[in-house]
Amino acid sequence: MRPSARLLATASIAMLASASALSAQSGPEVARAYREAHEPELVRDFAELLSYPNRAFTPEIREAALYIRDEMRAVGVDTELVEIEGASPLVLGVLEVPGASRTLGIYVHYDGQPVDPSNWTHDPFDPTLYTRAMEAGGTPIDLPTDGAAVDPEWRLYARSAGDDKAPIAAILPVLRSFRESGVTPTSNLVFMFDGEEEAGSRNLQQYMEMSADVLDDIDVWLFFDGPAHASGRPQVTFGVRGSFGMEVTVYGATRNLHSGHYGNWAPDTGNILAHLLASMKDDAGNVLVDGWYDTFEPIGAEERSALDAMPDWDDELKRELGLVRTEGEPESLPERLLVPALNVRGITSGNTGSLAQNVIPNEAVAALGIRMVKGNTSEQLRELIVRHIERQGFHVVEEDPDLETRLRYPRIAKVTGGRGGSVAARTSMADPYAQSVLAAAHRAADRAFGEGSLVVAPGMGGTLPLNLFTDVAGKPAVVVPVANHDNNQHAPDENLRIANLWYAIDLYAALMTMPVTVFVP
C-alpha cells in the first residue's frame, strides 16, 4: 500500500498555532517548561510505550506501531502505517509548516533486540523504575504520581529503553508543548519509525520507494539513535559502521570420539579452530588478514579536526570496564572506530562445566562479527577472510563436506554467511545542512550541560541503515544520540537514565526550531 494523499496535505498546523501569534518564548524554552510541569506524567507515558513487545516480524509489533501512530496523531502529526505483507509496519508521519523552506526527516526505530526473560531482573516488558543504576545500588520504586518530584538520576529498566524508544517518548512532549503554546517549527517535519532496524531493516528500501512522494523533498535526515559519549557528555556523529556476520566450521572425525581412546591421535577441533582464529589477529588486536587495512576511505580534514578535539576518555572508560589494556593501543577508541574490525562473537566445540564430556568434538564453529567503515563491502572483506583461511592450509567449502572430500583434504573449513549486511556510511561535516544541525545541537548542549560540552564525532561504532539515506537517496544524515552510554543496549536490564530523556526533549525542540540558513552555492 502507498501512503494516502492525506499525508501530503498540510497537517493541522493551524491547530498548532491556535494560540494566534508565536509564543514569546523559544521552542526549547517552551519544551523545557512543559517538561518541568509534567515530569511524572512523562515518566509514566514512557513506561507505557516500553510495555509494548517489539521484536520485528512478530504479530505483537503491529500493536506497538498502532500505539505510536495514535500518539503522533494526538499531537497534530498526520500519521499512518505503511505496510508490506510479512513485514513490520513502517510508521510514517508528516507535519507541514506553511511557508517552510526546509524539510527535516527524522528517523527512529521502534523494534528491539530479542529477549530472554530469564536473564533479566524484571520482565523486559514490565518497565521498572529504579532510584539509580542497579550496579550503583539502586532500588526499585513505584512510578511517580502527579505532583511528585522526579530525580533525573532515576533509571527506567525495559527492553528498548535506551535503544530506541526513548526518542519517541521525547518527540511527543516536544510537539505537544509546541501545539499548546503556539510554537511553530521552522521546518516541515517527516517522521519515519522503522520496525525492523534490529533485524537489518530488510524492507526499509522498499518502504522508502513506496513513500518517495513524501520523502523526496527532505533536505537532511536526523537519526535519533545511539548513546551519548562515554564521559556522559552529549554528542553528534556523522557516520556509522556497517556490519555483517559469518561462521567458520572446522572438521575432525565424522563423529565425536572418546577422548581416552582417541586423544593424542584424532584431530582436536577446538585446538584447530583456536589456532585459525589466532592467525587472524596479533596480540595487540591488529587484524592480520592481508589487505584488511587497504580497503577503506580516509576521513577528511573536518573529521580529522573533530577527532583531535574529542575528549581523551580512554583511561576513565578502561577503569569503568575493568580493562588494563585495549586493542590497538595507543590509538584511542574513537580512532579504532574508524577502521574495519574483526571480532569473534562466539565459539562452540563440545560443552563446558557440568555438561562437559570426555569426547573430542567432531567439529568446532566460530561466529565472526565484522564491522565495516566507509569504503568497505561485505563481499570484499569476506573474500579477504576466505583467502586468509586458505593460506592457513584449509580447503574452504560452503556446505558440510562429504566423505570423499574429507579423505582428500587434511584440513577443511566451511565458511557460511558474510554476504549482504549493512553498509557503512558517512556524511561530510562540511555539508551546509549538517552544519545547521551541528549549530543547533551545540546550543542545546550548552544550555543543558554548559558551554562547550558537545562532543563532535566523525562516526560511531554501531550500525544504522544510514547508507539508504546518504548513498541511495543522496541526502545528508546526522546521528544525534541521547541515551546514556551505560544503558545496557541489546543486553539484559537495558535502561534509560531519566536525565537523558530530559536532554532529548531539549535537543529535539532546538532541532525542530533551528534557524533557516540560506545557502549560496
Task: Write a concise keyword list for the protein shown above.
globular, Aminopeptidase, 521 residues, 17 helices, 31% helix, Alpha-Beta Plaits, six-stranded mixed beta sheet, alpha/beta, 21 strands
Describe, in plain words, how this protein is organized in 3D:
The protein has 521 residues and is of the alpha/beta class. The chain folds into two domains: 324 residues, 3-Layer(aba) Sandwich (Aminopeptidase); 150 residues, Alpha-Beta Plaits (2-Layer Sandwich). The protein is 31% helix and 18% strand. The protein is built from 17 helices and 21 strands. The strands form six sheets. It has a six-stranded mixed β-sheet, with helices on both faces. Strand 1 and strand 2 form a beta hairpin. Helix 2 runs antiparallel to helix 17. The chain is globular and about 85 Å long.
Please give the CATH architecture of the largest domain: 3-Layer(aba) Sandwich
Low-confidence stretches: 1-23
CATH superfamily of the largest domain: Zn peptidases
Question: Percent helix among the residues?
Answer: 25-40%
Quaternary status? single chain
Shape: globular
Count of helical regions: 17
Give, in spatial order, the strands making up the sheet with the most strands: 1-2-7-3-8-20
Gap from first CA to last CA: 38 Å
